[in-house]
Amino acid sequence: MDRRSDEDPPLIQEFLREARRNFVGEPEPITGHNGYRPPGLSQHAVAQRLGISPRLYQDWEGCGRPIPAHRLDSLANALRLDSRKRDELWFIVTGGYPPRGPAEPDPEAVTGWTSYLHALQVPALTVDGAWRILETNQAWRQLFEPAGQPPPANLLRFVLFAPYARQLCAEWRTGWATAFLRQLRLQAQTAHHQPQTGPDQELLRVIAELREDPELARLWQTESESTRVALHHDGQVRLLRPPAGGYVQRVRMLVSSPAHDPRRRVLMFMPAVTAPGLAGPAGTAPGTTASATTAPGTAGPAVPTLRRTGPYSGVLSGPPKSGLVKSGLL
After folding, report:
1. Quick check: 224 and 217 in contact, CB under 8 A?
2. pLDDT tens digit sequence for 175-222
3. What is the pTM of this model?
4. Is 251 left (phi over 0), alpha (psi -120 to 50) or beta?
5. 134 Cβ contact partners less than 8 Å away, ≥ 6 residues apart
6. Going by C-beta distance under 8 Å and a sequence separation of 6 or more, which residues neighbour residue 104?
7. Residue 268: helix, strand or coil by DSSP?
8. Quick one: average pLDDT of 132-146?
9. Is 236 exposed, middle or buried (0-12, 13-18, 19+ CB in 10 A)?
10. Backbone angles phi, psi at 125, to 5 degrees
């Protein structure tokens, strides 16, 4: 189908043409009249470098055929694209980064996300695709690294193997371990379909170690025989038992990924508020949710209050001597 003359040319077409014009490398053989040597690379030369027919490459550049994802790295090599341009090529063709992630992190974006993490008044941390902990904020360290507890290096390992996790994470088996095992199973299975990256060795080590633990091995076997998986933890409510004592608290895990590096995930543990008319879970403060207050002498659903100070004034909190404030969550 012919495009209208007033339509913008496809982005991939302009990208590849510019990449050929700006190619830096050995020149093409002299062609044309009077020994004219065209600048950059011709379509024919790119096709030769790729080992494909000139017609096929012309179809790629002219949008007659889609460029297969498994050919993108070879195309980037043929055009000698730098790491930034390689990421741009992947985004234009597939809408995202290559499976291995971006070649280089954006320093400005990294600084911004770091500032955001440390400004949060709720426990938060950054992890990579294998759950390695990259950075934490003060609220996280107060809750997950109390005095005498070594700082965890991997969130998945912490939840599954750390004795302190079974004390901190209420309903550890059904609320925490099972959910993390389901996501681990999904990650391990889907990674086999990505030949360029494959499963992360850290995840494979975790699977090998959990098979040596009798309880975790039984859980893993149960999940392996099930069709249930966990796509993510975003929005899920978990229970935490504060190290300082007190009522079990409900927290909602929120997960976000920076656009500059989708491999990184920022996890936040927000106070979870029970909807009006719904009873709180067993073990929570009578007449309250994990982040709400109830007027003295009254019963019924708790009414959340707002924190009025700090950079995130919309964070829900309870009175100074109850709920998450008392427990160290806020």
Report:
1. no
2. 999 999 988 988 887 765 454 445 578 889 999 999 999 999 999 998
3. 0.64
4. beta
5. 125, 126, 127, 128, 264
6. 83, 84
7. strand
8. 93
9. middle
10. -155, 165
